[in-house]
Design a protein that fits this description.
- The chain has 271 residues and is α/β, with parallel strands linked by helices.
- It has a single domain (3-268), classed as 3-Layer(aba) Sandwich (Rossmann fold), CATH 3.40.50.
- It has helices at residues 12-23, 54-68, 91-119, 140-160, 179-191, 197-207, 210-215, 219-231, 245-254, 257-268; strands at 3-7, 27-32, 44-48, 73-76, 122-127, 165-172, 238-241.
- Strands 3-2-1-4-5-6-7 form a 7-stranded parallel beta sheet, with helices on both faces.
- Helix 4 links the parallel strand 5 (122-127) and strand 6 (165-172).
- The radius of gyration is 19 Å and the shape is globular.
- The N and C termini lie far apart (55 Å).
Length: 271
């Protein structure tokens, strides 16, 4: 039986993916800071986890190993968006973004890898974003965290393949969750009243527009893709999901930087 440890399991994509793993017959440990919601998920064992606390990370992995004997799949799904201008976002907020989205994920990977190496098998699924392929104004620290996760995943894949361990990335574009609401709260706090206020206002309008809502992937669709990336025998290195996701990455790669910058400004309604 496959044993899965998934973070961010208290809500949204993580909660749905945890339920799908359990329905597939896997032994599932769902981790989050608040485990009350996880306790309601059928077939999912809750684990208390603070990604900014090394002892908490180690304890979560140790608890899962003691209970199940192995962690066959680690899914790093937890994360949030620290939005605001690079100038105005405090370094304390920037550090917190990297602690949760990058270092917390890597801490779990480091804790889980010894048992995977001993078993000479395992799968690590890092939930990234299209934001890890190209960057836009007012999301610099969030983009930085996802760029870092992408690079670390690529390096890691080359390192652990010799032990029978694979690493794959899932890259959603916009998803119908409250992630955007949280990101806009951070944006409001950082940049609503300063020199970037007009840009912040345009971004808030963009994220609340019915047109964007129609482009969003469902939580179910993204969760199903995570399960596929985790359980398929020969995974791709990256799984993208969302209308126009592949086209967006191609444009960011092929167009001159300033041309892509202009397209981004137009998309978000910046002057």
């Amino acid at each position: 039986m496959t044993t899965v440890l998934i973070t961010g399991a208290s809500s949204g994509i993580g909660a749905r993916a945890a339920s799908l793993f359990a329905a597939s017959g896997a032994t599932v440990f769902g981790a989050a800071r608040n485990t009350a919601a996880i306790e309601k998920l059928e077939g999912v064992t809750p684990l208390a986890l603070d990604l900014t606390d090394g002892a908490s990370v180690d304890n979560a992995v140790t608890t899962a190993l003691r209970s199940a004997g192995s962690i066959d799949v680690l899914v790093n799904c937890a994360g949030y968006g620290e939005f605001g201008s690079v100038e105005e976002t405090t370094l304390a907020d920037a550090r917190q973004q990297l602690e949760v989205n990058v270092l917390g994920a890597v801490g779990l990977i480091q804790a889980a890898l010894p048992s995977m190496r001993a078993a000479r098998s395992g799968r690590i699924v890092n939930v990234s974003s299209l934001a890890g392929e190209f960057a836009a104004p007012l999301g610099g620290w969030y983009h930085a965290s996802k760029f870092a996760l992408e690079a670390l995943s690529d390096s890691l894949r080359g390192e652990v393949g010799q032990f029978g361990i694979d690493v794959t990335l899932v890259q959603p574009s916009y998803v119908a969750t409250d992630w955007h609401d949280t990101a806009m709260i951070h944006l409001e706090r950082s940049s609503a009243n300063g020199p970037y206020a007009a840009m912040a206002s345009a971004m808030r309008a963009y994220f609340s527009s019915p047109a964007l809502a129609r482009q969003m992937s469902s939580v179910d669709a993204v969760a199903e893709l995570i399960v596929k990336a985790a359980l398929t025998p020969r995974p791709k290195t990256r799984y993208r999901i969302g209308p126009g996701a592949d086209i967006a990455v191609a444009l960011a790669t092929l167009l001159p930087d300033r041309t892509f910058d202009a397209m981004t400004r137009k998309q978000f309604g910046y002057a």
